[in-house]
């Protein structure tokens, strides 16, 4: 891989914010949507991949990590959406959703659906989050994290009818079980982002 700082066009002394700005500018420039039905689309896709890898490499090294450590959902591969993860982690959900919405359907992998579900869940849109988590789990059925998110969102969206007290979307009240389930799911999402909301249950 080429020098990641050269790829992003920043100096080694650049701040994290400067690196993020450079990444976002390049990501907008080389986004696949800009090259639809264009003979340069393959080159743009390669460039976008290089930009993502450069950003991941810099941010991981600054966190003291290595490889894909430092927030990637798959411990054996780098994230396809490092900027989205960073935005979600800092609570900037609208900006994260904007970047996700800008990804064409052909570029929406399991991680995209998981991240999309995470944003929706944090906004309280449990039915939509469930649908997105389900898609991620269907695309990668062996991913325990995606399946766990499906289970929590299913309960929160009211898709489990065995609860005699009712739940969101089921016409009943919010019960202590609903609150606990919500906290567990939020904790799962936070841990995915490198944080820790709760440490019990």
Write up this protein.
With 201 residues, this protein is mostly helical. It has nine helices and no strands. The radius of gyration is 18 Å and the shape is globular. Residues 65-77, 160-173 and 197-201 have low confidence and may be disordered.
The radius of gyration computed from the alpha-carbon positions, rounded to a whole number of angstroms, is: 18 Å
Main sheet characteristics = none
Q: Total strand count, please?
A: 0
Estimate what percentage of residues fall within beta strands.
Answer: under 5%
Q: Which percent range fits the helix content?
A: 55-70%
Q: In whole angstroms, how far apart are the ends? A: 43 Å
Uncertain stretches: 65-77, 160-173, 197-201
Assembly type of the chains comes to single chain
The general outline is globular
Which structural class do the helices and strands define?
A: mainly alpha
Series of secondary-structure elements, N-terminal to C-terminal: HHHHHHHHH
């Amino acid at each position: 891989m080429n020098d990641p700082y050269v790829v992003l066009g920043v100096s080694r002394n650049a701040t994290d914010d400067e690196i993020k700005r450079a990444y976002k500018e390049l990501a907008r420039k080389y986004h696949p949507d800009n090259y639809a039905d264009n003979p340069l689309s393959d080159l743009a896709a390669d460039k976008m991949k290089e930009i993502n890898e450069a950003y991941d490499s810099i941010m991981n090294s600054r966190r003291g990590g290595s490889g894909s450590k430092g927030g990637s959902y798959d411990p054996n591969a780098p994230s396809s959406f490092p900027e989205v993860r960073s935005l979600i982690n800092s609570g900037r959900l609208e900006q994260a959703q904007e970047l996700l919405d800008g990804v064409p359907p052909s570029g929406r992998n399991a991680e995209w659906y998981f991240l999309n579900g995470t944003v929706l869940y944090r906004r309280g849109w449990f039915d939509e989050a469930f649908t997105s988590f389900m898609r991620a789990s269907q695309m990668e059925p062996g991913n325990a994290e995606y399946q766990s998110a499906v289970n929590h969102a299913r309960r929160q969206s009211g898709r489990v009818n065995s609860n005699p007290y009712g739940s969101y979307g089921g016409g009943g009240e919010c019960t202590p079980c609903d609150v606990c389930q919500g906290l567990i799911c939020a904790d799962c999402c936070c841990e995915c982002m490198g944080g820790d909301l709760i440490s019990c249950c």
